[in-house]
Amino acid sequence: MSNPRIPRPFFCGNWKLWGTLSDSVALATGVRDAVASVTTADVAVAPGFVALDAVAGKLKGSAVAVASQDGYWEEKGAFTGEVAMVQIADCGASYAIVGHSERRQYFGETDETVARKAKAALAAGLVPILCIGETLPERDAGQALTVVGKQLDGTTANLRDDELAKSVIAYEPVWAIGTGRVATPAQAQEVHALIRSKLVHKLQARAQQVRILYGGSVKPNNVAELMKEKDIDGALVGGASLTVDSFASIVQKGVAACTRS
Ligand code: PGA
Asked: d(Cα 216, Cα 171) in Å, to the nearest integer?
């Protein structure tokens, strides 16, 4: 007999800057149908802002949830170009990715702004997917654990324990994103274990319920090995989430690998 894995695995496709409205609706519909039989994991897709409402409409009532790729902390006002977390929730999204390394690298996000976004997401009823991860020079200098620990502290400093317990953490080593160079399961597990231990320090037993995702070149052929690691609870998938077949295959293989008997 197999026991359900705790926490429940979670797979989220991050579409980044991709697709027309009709491309987005078609991909979302394909994913919805392809993973309809998956009952032991949560699945979400993160389209671009302009497709959020249409994708959420298509996925309503299905097993696939919707995430935004970002979101702003203010609810309204003179912030040209920004999209509020409350507007994202109003579209029917359930999650908001915050602090993705591309946002940090190209758009000047800091742990402080990411923390404000996470807080606002929670206040709007969204679950933040908080991204943290070291760069290659930081890893090569032996600083991966220090950097990730500091980012975790910085991005969650303003969250109450009950808010942190609801959040999703995504460890995404910057050197593995979009490069085809995936972290080894052992490299990822080492960082996930650090994240878990810091969560235990704050949340005690509730820390075991927090999903810690791995992201960075996750593909159908490497997801199983990653998911076998104790503290890897799912994946944040970029490039390989852009076709129905590869994303559905990641979900199915990931689920199969972590079904414990
Ligand atoms: P990748 O992106 O799977 O294309 O490496 C992951 C991410 O940035 O979330």
From this structure: 9
